[in-house]
Design goal:
Low-confidence stretches: none
Structural class: alpha/beta
Order of helices and strands: HHHEEEHEHEHHH
Largest sheet: 5 strands, mixed
Number of strands: 5
Shape: globular
Distance between the termini: 48 Å
Helix content: 40-55%
Radius of gyration: 19 Å
Strand content: 5-15%
Length: 247
């Protein structure tokens, strides 16, 4: 291996140590767009293949879907949000519940809640965090057309959750039954959280995970390039989009 490739390998191994689920495309994107290293994607693939650092495809992710309508799409921040919940098992604490709120336009994680319960209050906690982060001066005047996508679980369909969304001027959109693709943007981010943060480590308790989750989300928003955003980070894309409106 040449000296130049050995230097790249050191950088790649450091990234894989921090993000074991990253494949060669994301490694290449991070090196090129975050570290400003002008490197060919095929070259990264060759180096990672030689060192057995590639991520094998997971064929078990093919799920049956029976959609009745296509999901909404947007490139505009703060027009469509998505929310969902997942369970995480901590050996000494039992199951804990992660609730996330995603901006589908910028891919930014704008709200989250990690608790030992999954009640309407916990879902609303993530929603309120997102509203405070994105609309610190009030939501109704800033964006009267915000939509929120969720599944048909008992929490987002509860009277209290629906009433809260209505009072905030948020239009709820529910996915069709047995259709994971309907909330795919949100579920993909949850999978990334599990692969990149939750699964590689053993957690002592919920408090340790909470602390590291907050750090991880900030890093994700500020430092993870997305191909769907032209390899910008969620923060950079949001800033670019808002600046383009002013211009």
């Amino acid at each position: 291996m040449s000296a130049a490739n050995q230097d790249l390998l050191v950088k790649i191994k450091k990234m894989k140590n921090e993000h074991p689920s990253w494949g060669y495309r994301r490694v290449w994107a991070y090196l090129k767009f975050r570290k400003n290293i002008n490197v060919n994607k095929k070259r990264i693939h060759r180096i990672m293949k030689l060192e057995n650092l590639l991520v094998p495809p997971n064929l078990k992710l093919k799920s049956k879907r029976t959609p009745t309508r296509s999901k909404p799409r947007t490139i505009e921040p703060n027009s469509i949000w998505g929310t969902d919940m997942t369970k995480i098992l901590i050996p000494n604490s039992g199951w804990v519940y992660l609730h996330v709120l995603i901006d589908w336009g910028s891919k930014k994680i704008i709200g989250h809640s990690l608790e030992s319960t999954s009640r309407t209050d916990d879902w609303l906690s993530a929603l309120h965090m997102g509203i405070n982060n994105q609309f610190p001066n009030g939501i109704k005047e800033a964006n009267p057309y915000l939509q929120l996508v969720s599944d048909n679980g008992c929490q987002p369909t509860s009277k209290r959750f629906i009433s809260e969304c209505k009072s905030l001027g948020i239009q709820q959109i529910f996915t069709s039954y047995n259709n994971p693709k309907g909330n795919a943007d949100t579920e993909r981010v949850i999978r990334t959280i599990k692969e990149d943060l939750v699964w590689p480590r053993e957690w002592k308790d919920i408090y340790e995970l909470k602390e590291e989750l907050t750090k991880w989300i900030q890093n994700y928003n500020e430092d993870f390039p997305h191909s769907s955003l032209g390899y910008m980070t969620p923060y950079d894309y949001e800033a670019w989009f808002n600046a383009s409106l002013v211009a």
